[in-house]
Write a structure and sequence with these properties.
Alpha-Beta Plaits; 147 residues; single chain; 39% strand; 6-stranded antiparallel sheet; 3 helices
């Protein structure tokens, strides 16, 4: 039996570390009146072209340091033994056999990120998930009803 739990990384893009020099004007309310004064960005911000890439690099590094291997077939899938982790931007799904395994993964993630536990998976990427007796049922009934 697998347990499948859903977590969220709060403000995920802000954890990305920029590899290039990038400057921005000061936001309104922070400037000293001199329009030539700019700020050098060290960390990523939402809205930057490279925000998704640098966040992905950051979570990839974190998971690999936890001895997870990235799948060559799906870059959003990581495995370590029988544990699977799926990532979609800041949403993380962990499938494992025990609550202890899950808690140890979340504990390690919390060393680097603000993690919000959303509990057993119920909805992910437009798919409703329901746990049955020894199985899971996936449904896109609401999506079908819209069309």
């Amino acid at each position: 039996q697998m347990i499948v739990r859903h977590t969220d990384i709060r403000t995920a893009y802000l954890y990305g570390e920029l590899q290039e020099e990038l400057y921005m004007r000061q936001p309104p309310g922070y400037s000293n009146g001199d329009p030539s004064v700019v700020c050098r960005l060290v960390k990523s911000l939402y809205g930057l072209k490279q925000a998704a890439r640098v966040w992905n690099n950051r979570i990839d590094t974190a998971l690999k340091s936890m001895e997870f291997t990235r799948s060559s077939a799906d870059q959003c899938l990581y495995t370590r033994g029988t544990i699977c982790i799926l990532i979609y931007v800041d949403d993380i799904v962990v499938a494992c056999h025990t609550s202890e395994e899950y808690e140890s993964i979340v504990k390690l993630l919390r060393q680097s990120f603000k993690v919000v536990e959303l509990g057993d998976i119920k909805f992910f990427l437009g798919i409703h998930v329901r746990k049955g007796d020894g199985h899971y049922v996936l449904s896109q009934k609401s999506y079908i009803s819209k069309t």
